[in-house]
Amino acid sequence: MPEIRSNPVTGDWVIIATERARRPEEFTQKRHKAVLPPLAPECPFCPGNEAQTPAEQFRVAAPGGGWLVRSVPNRYAALTPEGTVERHVNGFRTCLDGIGLHEVILETPAHNLTMALLPLSQLEQVLQTYRHRFRAFYKDRRIEHVILFKNYGEAAGTSLIHPHSQIVGMPVLPSQLRARLEEALRHWGNVGECLYCRTLDEELRDGTRVIAQNASFAAFVPYAALSPFHIWFFPKRHSADFGDVTDNQLADLAAVLREVLLRLYVGLEDPDYNFVIRSLSPQEGAVKYFHWYISLIPRVTKSAGFELGTGMFINTALPERSAEFLRGVALPA
Amino acid sequence: MPEIRSNPVTGDWVIIATERARRPEEFTQKRHKAVLPPLAPECPFCPGNEAQTPAEQFRVAAPGGGWLVRSVPNRYAALTPEGTVERHVNGFRTCLDGIGLHEVILETPAHNLTMALLPLSQLEQVLQTYRHRFRAFYKDRRIEHVILFKNYGEAAGTSLIHPHSQIVGMPVLPSQLRARLEEALRHWGNVGECLYCRTLDEELRDGTRVIAQNASFAAFVPYAALSPFHIWFFPKRHSADFGDVTDNQLADLAAVLREVLLRLYVGLEDPDYNFVIRSLSPQEGAVKYFHWYISLIPRVTKSAGFELGTGMFINTALPERSAEFLRGVALPA
User: Are the beta carbons of B3 and A98 separated by less than 8 Å?
Assistant: First the structure.
């Protein structure tokens, strides 16, 4: 008998289709991946080609010269920096100029690495860069919302190989954030607690869906996971603002993120995935009812008309089994 | 300069990335499709193999024997018919048994046809079957919501070739429907009109995004279309209930649907697509603020971390140009 579970954080129902469920190993990608060189002369993100990107906005310098991490404007930006945020209301229609900020964060000079295989210190530098750009974007007062995300692999929507993430600052509040805020505010209003803190407490107490944790962060498969190996990373200290994360917390986040990415890399044979950081702005950091977090979705299944038409998902993996499988992956020493 | 448009029906913001925009022809699929036989002996949906499907629930008989359309339970159903709809609340968690109805509607005996190429009378029989099964599903009082959808092609999430649609009845209201109802109710409460009737009026008056229409239906690219060639089909007579559609209206719907599918088939070289019918139940048919409709999304682009993390979309085609292109496609006589 399948089970329908409610996700209190999003208000979504998810069908856990246990009869259709596949064994975790069956989600491995088994793709034949090309062997890549550490430096690709034609890659605009490789060292030596720095002039091919728009003007660098931030870099973490390498001790001996060169760079460890760079952030550069996206040459094919979805939004452009010049303009105003006046809304044009024309009868029934509302639009505004597509102003905003859009940068690409280069996670390493090495063309052939992947985030899962970065040294811990390097991953920490990437997260430091995330925080720096996140804070910087919000200094532009036209920006209402900033989203950090990573598309890894073709199924996740990227064809660029050089390891990179993206950050977009936009002049409107996306409807998905609005919906999350409404759910969270309702819970806070009714129960007087942060919906996310409560979710984390429940997950840690239960333990069956937890994959990894340390002093500052926990990673777990949500009770009503949308898809196989859907993973949430929650900071243990309540904050609505990612920009508020301390250096110590970032080091802890790097450790948990790396462990989980490595478990996915080994256990599912380097799957394509997306992750996003959902956060309010530094100005709203003290909000009691919202909690920033990271959501990661390996692209091991496809959504279709049912999902498009309902916003509901059919998950063919039992969340508890997904978590158990990832906990059991033997990591290289 | 890109433009950010608001979709009043969904509350979503969409970035129309005009600088990234490609010419409509560039969205053609240019795939090499296999030539298929009209009858495939190994296909469980082909005539002669009727015993391979679960017990048929409905058929439109062919005048000379055999069938024109069949509806059969899905062998790999997401939900199962036996059980109760009691919700189990366990502290913070809510779940219920995965009960529900799930059928596959076989649109033609011909293995190698596609909906765009069905004769008009056959497409009408398919829509009659949709209405019949839609009404029948709601007779089961455990069913809270019914969704009809079609996944066409691999990018749209199906690997089954024989032309088919699906219908799912579920015991919960999906969050996406709830969000649509909330937006519609707010508008009705504030302005005293159906948000969908108003949208249709505006589109017909403006005309630049309309693709096809007749006495009962209009097909148009929404002002804030989520993706290239995203198309809405609205009934002109207000009703919240698809099951309430008359025979004459169904004939008109078949004509508009066929014309649009044919324009996509010819203009974009047989693209993969999904469509869904969004409707309330017959019991709620008299609701003044909601309006049933069909949403069709050709799978010509991919969504990634940005869309997952915000619910916002980046559309690389100008909706007016998509509509103009489809209107201009020369159809076979």
Answer: yes
